[in-house]
Amino acid sequence: MEYKATRDAYGKALVEIGIDRNIVVLDADLSSSTKSAEFKKVYPERFFNIGIAELNMVDIAAGFALEGFKVFASSFAVFITGRAFEGVRQSICYQDLDVVLCGSHAGISVGEDGGSHQAICDISLMRSLPNMQVIVPADYNEAYKAILTAYKSKGPFYFRTSREKSLNFTTHDFEIGRAYILKEGTDAYIFACGIVLELALQVAKELEQENINIGVVNVSTIKPLDEHTIYICAKNSKMVFTLEEHSIIGGLGSVICEFLSENLPKKVVRLGINDRFGQSGTSTDLFCEYGFSVNSLKDNIKKSLKND
Fold first, then answer.
1. Nearest to 53 by CA among 64, 43, 45, 61
2. Do 93 and 209 reside in the same domain of the chain?
3. 69-96: per-residue pLDDT in tens?
């Protein structure tokens, strides 16, 4: 079993597409962490360290895009979405520019960096912007394929990557706006995104031993949403769950609730960070503290099904 960080896939993909001289990469003095430094090693003339100035960085990215370049810009997720929000809105999304933003070190799995550096509302911020496409890869394989896909696609993108190594297990191709059914279910479905998708599969496997049949869907594209797959899975189950390393307010859970409330009213239980900030600790300890463990998720799911 191979464990790799999704942020490493970003660096590898940048090097591969960097053969295209139209590619420009920017970073906010965190290139070793975001892994854009891999691009710098090979193509230093098209790499720009903007410093600790994310708002300036996204405005500069917009300028490069207006001149016809394909731009990739990265920083920690909490800064590139929060500190730079106005620039992302006004300079990139308002003009529908060809800029890919990569927010690394997302969620509480950042660990000891603490609550100030743990992005738990970045999905909510980015999906609220017109024209923005939001991608949360489940593992290294999917992150790598997703970056290559974004390179060939138009418009603004926000990619969410993780510091922590996670199981590298997906084998499917990546298509923008497509959700992937990894396990069929009859009692319920878990719609998950990011590195906690692995947890959803473990939970479903263990519950099967208790004759509870839970399906699992990889919703790595938060926006645009694969409404057809979501509808079919929800229609064929008693209730649905969402699982994300993000606040349950505004993220994947909200996306699913919004869609189903208008198209197929169904009970939805949102599993994630329950309106709390992160804190300092190891990623393992924080996952346990915030309920991202197989036993905790199993208990929540069984209790919800019993009370339905």
1. 61
2. no
3. 999 999 999 999 999 999 999 999 999 9
Same domain, 88 and 146: yes
On whether both 146 and 272 belong to a single domain, the answer is: no
If asked whether residues 184 and 269 sit together in one domain, one would say: yes
Helix (H, G, I), strand (E, B) or coil at 264: coil
Same domain, 128 and 207: no
Q: Could you confirm whether 175 is annotated as catalytic?
A: no
Q: Would you state the torsion angle of the CA atoms of residues 279, 285, 289, 290, taken in this order, to the nearest 10 degrees? A: 70
Catalytic-labelled residue, pool 38, 54, 244, 245: 54
Q: Which residue range is the domain that position 221 belongs to? A: 180-307
What are the Cα distances from residue 98, in Å, to 4, 20, 72, 130? 28, 15, 9, 14
| pLDDT recorded at residue 26 | 98
**188 with 234: CB under 8 angstroms?**
no
pLDDT at position 307 is 85
Chain segment 97-115, per-residue pLDDT in tens: 999 999 999 999 999 999 9
Mean pLDDT of 162-186: 96
- H helices of 67-188, in order, are 77-78, 85-87, 122-127, 140-151
Q: What is the mean pLDDT of residues 208-236?
A: 97
State the distance between the two ends of the chain, measured CA to CA, in whole angstroms: 37
| 216 within a domain of the structure (yes/no) | yes
Strands (E), the chain: 3-4, 23-27, 47-49, 70-76, 99-104, 133-135, 157-160, 166-167, 180-183, 188-192, 214-218, 221-223, 239-247, 268-273
